[in-house]
Design goal:
about 35% helix, about 140 residues, DNA-binding, transcription cis-regulatory region binding (chains A, B), 3-stranded antiparallel β-sheet, globular, DNA-binding transcription factor activity (chains A, B), Arc Repressor Mutant, subunit A, homodimer, alpha+beta, 3-stranded mixed β-sheet
Chain lengths: ~140, ~140
DNA sequence: TAAAACAATGCAATACAATTGCATGCCAGC
DNA sequence: GCTGGCATGCAATTGTATTGCATTGTTTTA
């Protein structure tokens, strides 16, 4: 069977043609993409369907959303540990102010933070802005 | 002299009536506010002027913007260490999924994160989502 | 197999935040 | 008091996110 379809079924997502294409496209990305970037990168797709596809993916733990401060929501593939019950990929995200790309840094985990007593943490997001490896080299 | 005006001048912001009112309002808040919340909380003010006022405040290091993942940008007063050169208040922000309020936790500093070699960090934002003290108590 | 049930898709339309343009108003310095 | 520059307010635009609804496609069931 098609490995893409298998990946969808693994997350209990009905593997329609559209979803397979979107998944395929997402897997080829090195950076997190906004809905618009996704739309532009694919052949004549309806934005709304794309929106709902991504949302389905997100709900089933296949992609995660990243708010990098650029104003638009971006999406990237999850690690395998994510599922319907929640997203468990507590890695940081890096937004390069030069190339405007947002990347997951899966090797860098979000450190524990101590909250005031009584507070309950459910989810943590850490965004670092700066220059990525390529851009930093290019400038200096 | 009016302490509010003084605070504005301290950050090299011309203390107009509008700005004094906005600053006064901001200082009374315990939570970070969105532009719309700000607009509603004040007497018949023009949204655009408010937008530009907040932007001016932000540029001069008087308020900082927070993207808490709710989709809208929120603003809160800065610590004294911020100025035109940048925002240096590296505290975390807490978004309560129950009361939908975003608070600064100035006592909790953002821990250092190790980036891949070649990466340069310029700014870091850490958002924790969960239940704040009040809501956590209310539920249990 | 045919019909019914349900999910997915595509188009239209809406809601709303963010932003810009432009005309007017206000204040400071000459 | 005139002039220049910044501040303000209104109108209008952009762009993202989101919903409604009709249609299509797929799966289940009689």
């Amino acid at each position: 069977m098609n490995p893409l379809e298998a990946k969808l079924k693994e997350k209990s997502i009905a593997p329609t043609a559209m979803r397979v294409v979107v998944l395929d496209f997402l897997l080829k990305q090195s950076a997190a993409l906004s809905l618009t970037e996704l739309e532009l990168g694919m052949h004549r797709t309806d934005r709304v369907t794309l929106y709902r596809t991504i949302r389905t993916f997100e709900e089933h733990g296949l992609v995660h959303r990243i708010e990098d401060g650029s104003g638009v929501t971006k999406f990237a593939m999850c690690q395998t540990s994510c599922n319907v019950d929640g997203h468990h990929d507590l890695h940081i995200h890096f937004y390069c102010t030069q190339c405007k790309e947002t990347h997951c840094l899966p090797k860098t985990h979000i450190p524990e933070v101590s909250l005031p007593s009584g507070y309950l943490a459910l989810d943590t997001q850490l965004i670092v802005k700066g220059l990525c490896g390529s851009c930093n080299v290019a400038i200096t």
